[in-house]
Structures are given as structure tokens and as C-alpha cells.
Amino acid sequence: MKFVDEFRDQALAMGLAAAIAREANPARRYSIMEFCGGHTHAIFRYGVQDLMPENVGFVHGPGCPVCVLPIGRIDNALELAEQHGVILCSYGDMLRVPASKRRSLLKAKAEGADVRMVYSVDDALRIARDNPGREVVFFAIGFETTTPPTAVALRTAKAEGLRNFSVFCNHVLTPAALNHLLTAAALDVDAFIGPSHVSSVIGSRPYEYFTETFHRPVVIAGFEPLDVMQAALMAIRQLNDGRAEVENQYIRVVTRDGNLKARAIVDEVFERRESFEWRGLGAVPDSALKIRDAYAAFDAEKRFSIVTRSAPDAKSCECAEILRGAKKPVDCKLFGKGCTPDSPVGSCMVSSEGACAAYWTYGRFRERAASEAA
Amino acid sequence: MSAIEARFGAREGKLTGTVEMIHGAGGRASAELIRTLFRRHLDNPLLAQGNDQAAFAVDAGRMVMSTDAHVIAPLFFPGGDIGSLAVHGTINDVAMAGARPLYLSAAFVLEEGFPLADLDSIVASMAAASRAAGVPIVTGDTKVVEKGKGDGVFITTTGIGVVPEGVEISGDRARPGDVVLLSGSIGDHGIAVLSKRESLTFETEILSDSAALHTLVADMVAAVPGIRVLRDPTRGGLGATLNEIAQQSRVGFRLDEAAIPIKPDVSAACELLGLDPLYIANEGKLIAIAPPDKAQLLLAAMRAHPLARDAAIIGEAVADPHAFVQMRTRFGGNRMVDWLAGDPLPRIC
């Protein structure tokens, strides 16, 4: 048992598909938003939609850290790499996201900036230790899942007195974004699938407010295709029963209160920003983290006096609408024409977790087949 | 002790110095390096003539020529090194035309300061690979670039071969209804190399599958001379290679994920790193496309060869004006297997 194929078992999938087909009421539609790009990716990579009845559809949410980062913050990263001459470390997808004037960290790297792809913040710490004469900045992105490792790295840097290491913090928060979608963006979906890795840290409790206020079911689900299908079935049952509860599909890890130790470390190092700009959602209150004053020496924003200026998305790019679940990737004029994974215009086409990239990479045969049939 | 050995120093028969600019200058130092290192390992009558070219007679018929530059990092990896890889890679490119490889050439770009002991190991490994394959390296060249202008050593090999009469294998010959065969498990090479990256070391038992496939090809061509396409899925893996063939032949492919062999360790490493094994490089596997009535015969011929014991039928070619590669997932849904965007694993071959 390797715990890989077990969660992709076809016989179990067929059983769940049959249950969904049996229980979904043919007289209505079920619109379920998977908040997280990891779920979007799983849905497309395994062809989960093929196993769903016609009246059960997935709406892709904004939970892709690369996608939601506004252009102004990527411009800041470019500024760090090019004008301040730092060694800028970040995760792979981030390097390809277009900034203003369609520049990107990858282009800056080709022109001589010292930009390095890392798999973990630990690699950035190691690079800092190995290059004591250079400034090393970790371009931190991600939701609650990637926040604890960044917090630990900051504590480590402080404990070691690592003077050449700092973090450009862009960590964002899931519940605030979900709240914003339902209030400011007036999103029209019936239920949510919440990301299990986020809840493995924050627990399921933060969504309770949400089901009470907005009366929409939230099912916290793992990232394997069977998890997604089971979560869809749980959401359908709640909707059929007229319930709106926080349910936990991912009982193999998630608890109501999450990982208390991780939360304590995050709380020690970070505090909430009053407001943070999200691509697609605009300024969202209490939706991101910044580094506390006790760690100010390791805050790249302070160390390099970074000022973020809001920059517009590329013309005709529908990333904003797509991230709000208001449009589908194929509704964008640029989809597959000016914008492909090889030459992305918008951020949703860059990351494998972006809805446009998932549509294009795994699912576009469906669109072609549909347009030919019509 | 020769002048050059005095300069390098030698310990227990191993050279201990480093590459210097003078080794590429064409003077006595260059000649000494060639004599004491390259020619010593790669010894064969054509090379021993010491000319700037190798002259030889070949049988009449269709000839094949291919060239491949190798820039892998790290230079030594589980299951091989840049030397064996440079030999296998070009032999395989020649063999994928159904050809019998005859001779190789090798060009080295060395970086100033590169340890001669490492160069010695690499050239010894090339010699062993070439000898085992029965394809000699008959001519070559060496250049040295300043420190910082290279990454240790880059090796370019070129190979020639002859195609048996009646064999016509090309990427544009796949037809709807043809069967797609794969010679064994995917992703071994890329994961083995990745496991030794400085920034990314992880524990795995996986070895690179780097191997010369020409004897397998000879057995396959003997069994089914009408094979339409052969290709080794190196950079970009199975996914990119099938997309190339789909474009060339203007057909689509339908694959069955459950039929594609993959080792549990490779699968686990891919899960961990967020990689899709369909796009991970192989250096000892091939894809064959054959008419449906010959598929079982070809599969049996492949499984009889030690390098293709796990060969499998993984899909078929279909008529598709978009030339899409689609796959029925193990899970029961459908997805595309698109071209790879970006480069998740730079410099793996």
C-alpha cells in the first residue's frame, strides 16, 4: 500500500458516480465551487467531470496563489531582483507569471538577474548561508498551507542571526477570500469544496461562521479524485436535505481546530494586513499576512523600502472574472489564441492550478468536440 | 613521466590535475591530453590513425545520421554519467530509424579547472558504453573554454548507421488504427537525475534507464519489418514524444493510463514533487507504432529482449484533425496529454 493508487481506484469512482447520479435531483442544477486550484487540477487531470451527471457542474475558484497575486507585487519582485541585485528565490510557477509590460522573473533571469527556483523555503535559507556576501530574498506566496514553513524559516533566520536573508511576504488567507466572493462579488454557487491542506492548518472551524451567515454547505476535501467525488456527493446530500453545514470529508487529517502548533508559530511571526489586493477580487480586507515588527529585520518590504503600485491586467484578459467564478476560461477571447501555457498573458494560464491552464492542458478536446457538434 | 603528467600529477594511475586553457590551444598539451586520456580509453584502429577525420567503407543502402548535444547536471547520476549517456543517446537516435549504428564521433567542450580525474572517468565510461554496444568512437574534437563559461563538460556525439533493406520507419507514418507499444517503465532517468540535484536530494533506489537500444531495434525490425514509427521518449517524456508523432503523422492518439508501466518509486517521487511521469525523460525506452495485425508479434519480440521485458501496448492511433493525444485515466475519466509547457526539469540529458 503506497497510498497513491488507492485514492484513484476506478471501481470506487464508479460507485461514487452511481451514487451521485442516483441522488442528484434531475429537476435542478448543482453548482459547486472548488475554491482551490489543486482541486481544479485534480478534476481535469483525472477527468472527474466525465463521471458526473450533466446537472452537476464545478465552478473554479480563486485558490491558486500564483493566479491571485496582483501584477504590482510581481513588479516588486522584479525590482528586488533587478534593481537591488538580490538572489531572489521562489517557486517554479511564479517565475513565468507575466508582470507589467509582459515581463517576468524568467525573462529577468535570462537577462542576468539572479533568480532561483526553489522547492522549499529551506532551500532559500541554505542559499543565504552559502552566500553570506549576498542579499537573499524569499518570494513567499501561498495560502495557509505554505505559511507555517515560511514562519519557521523566519524564526530560524532570527535564531541563527542570518543577516542576509529576508522574506517578501505575500501569504493570503482562504476564509477572507471566500467571504469576499459571497459578499462583494455576489457569487452564485450552491456549495463549496474547501481545501483540506488549508484546513489541516486552520481546522474546519473558520468556515462555521460562513455556513451560518450564507447558508451554503462547505465540504472540506482532500486532493485525490476520489476525495473530490465524495465531497461532491456530500454537498449534493446537504443541498437535497436543505442543510448548510461544514462537513469534513478529509477526516484522515483535518480536525475542527487544525494544527495548533503551526497556528501558534504563524501567529508569532505574522499579523493580518488591513487589506491586500487580489487579482480578480481587488482589495480584500483582512485577507493577507505581513511580518510582525519583531521580525522586521527579515522583512524584505521594509529592508528594501518596497512600495506596491496597482497595475492593470493585460487588455482583454479575463483572469479577474475567471478567478471570481463569473466566467469560464473559454469565455475569454484570448484563450488558446493570444494566451497559452507557452505564452501566457494572464496568470490563470501559468500555474497548473490555474483554471485556464487546466482547461487548456487537460480539457480542450471537450471544447473542440462541442463546437464541432454545434 | 611525460611533461603533461608532470604538470597534472598522477596518483594511483589517476590524473589529479585540472583542465587548463593550454589543453585546447592545439599545441603539445592538447596532443598529450588526447594521447594520455582520450585515445587511451577509446582505442580503436580508426582513431589510432590520428587524422582529423575517420575514413571507412560502408555497404550501399540508406544511411542515417544523427547528432546530440549533452549538457546534463549533475554529470554523474545513479545508473550512468554524461559519458555513457552521450554514447547511448546518439546510438538510440540512429537506431530509431531502424538502422544498425556503425560509428560515432565525439566533441568535448571542457571548462577550465575541470578535474582531469572526472574527465578520465567520463571518457572511460564512454569507452565502456561504446565497446558494449559495438559502436566505436572513431573521430573527435576537444575545446577548452574559460572558467565560468561552461559547466564542467559538454559532449556532442554524432552517429551514422545503415538501414536494412525494406525497412522504412519515420515519424510521419502512423495511421489511424495503428497500435502504440512502449518498451518499459517511464520516468526512471529523469527521477534518478533529479534525486541527485544539489537543491533537491531525496532518497530513492531508482537508477537511470540509460541504455543502447539498437539490439532491441534489430530484433523488432527482424520480427516486424513493417514497423511504422520508432522513437525514444527522451526530453519531454512520453507525452511530448507522442505529440510530436501526432503532428508529423496528422493523427490523434488514445492512450490507456492503466497500461503504461511505471515503477512505484518513480510514481511516488512524481507525486511528491508535483510532476507528471508522462513528461519525465527516459534514456533507455522506445515507443513503437505498428499496424494492428502485427502488434502481438512485435510485443512478443520486444518482451524477448532483456531491455523490453515490461513492454506493453498502451494505446492506438485514431483519425483526429486536431492531432490531440488523449488518455483514458486510471480513474475512468478522459484527459488530454498536451505538449509540456515550460521546463520542470532543466538539463537532464
Describe, in plain words, how this protein is organized in 3D.
The complex is a heterodimer of chains A (374) and B (349). With 374 residues, chain A is α/β, with parallel strands linked by helices. Chain A folds into 3 domains: 5-63 and 185-248, HypD, alpha/beta domain 1 (Rossmann fold), CATH 3.40.50.11750; 67-174 and 258-303, HypD, alpha/beta domain 2 (Rossmann fold), CATH 3.40.50.11740; 319-368, no CATH class. Chain A contains 15 helices and 13 strands. Chain A has helices spanning 10-23, 37-45, 65-68, 71-82, 105-110, 121-130, 147-160, 174-183, 196-202, 208-214, 225-241, 260-269, 300-303, 319-323, 355-373; strands at residues 30-36, 56-63, 87-90, 115-117, 136-142, 165-171, 191-195, 218-221, 246-248, 270-272, 275-278, 282-285, 289-291. In chain A, the strands form 4 sheets. In chain A, strands 2-1-7-8-9 form a 5-stranded parallel sheet, with helices on both faces. In chain A, strand 8 (218-221), helix 11 and strand 9 form a beta-alpha-beta unit. The longest helix of chain A is centred in the last third of the chain and has 19 residues, at 355-373. Chain A is globular and about 65 Å long. The mean pLDDT of chain A is 92. Chain B is of the alpha+beta class and 349 residues long. Chain B folds into 2 domains: 3-162, 60s Ribosomal Protein L30, Chain: A, CATH 3.30.1330; 179-336, PurM-like C-terminal domain (Phosphoribosyl-aminoimidazole Synthetase, Chain A, domain 2, Alpha-Beta Complex), CATH 3.90.650.10. Chain B contains 10 helices and 15 strands. Chain B has helices at 3-8, 28-42, 45-48, 82-95, 116-133, 188-194, 214-223, 237-249, 264-273, 295-303, and strands at residues 10-11, 14-15, 63-70, 76-77, 80-81, 100-111, 137-145, 153-162, 179-182, 229-231, 252-256, 287-290, 312-318, 325-328, 334-336. In chain B, the strands form 4 sheets. In chain B, strands 10-12-9-13-11-14-15 form a 7-stranded mixed sheet. Chain B has a 4-stranded mixed sheet with strand order 3-8-6-7. A two-stranded antiparallel ribbon of chain B has the order 1-2. In chain B, a hairpin with a 2-residue loop joins strand 1 (10-11) and strand 2 (14-15). The radius of gyration of chain B is 21 Å and the shape is globular. The two termini of chain B are 37 Å apart. Classes of the chains: A alpha/beta (374), B alpha+beta (349). The A-B interface holds A 2, 4-5, 8-10, 13-14, 17, 44-51, 92, 96, 118-119, 123, 225-226, 340-342, 352, 357, 360-365, 368 and B 199-200, 258, 264, 267-268, 271, 273-274, 276, 322, 324, 326, 328-336, 338-339, 341-342, 344.
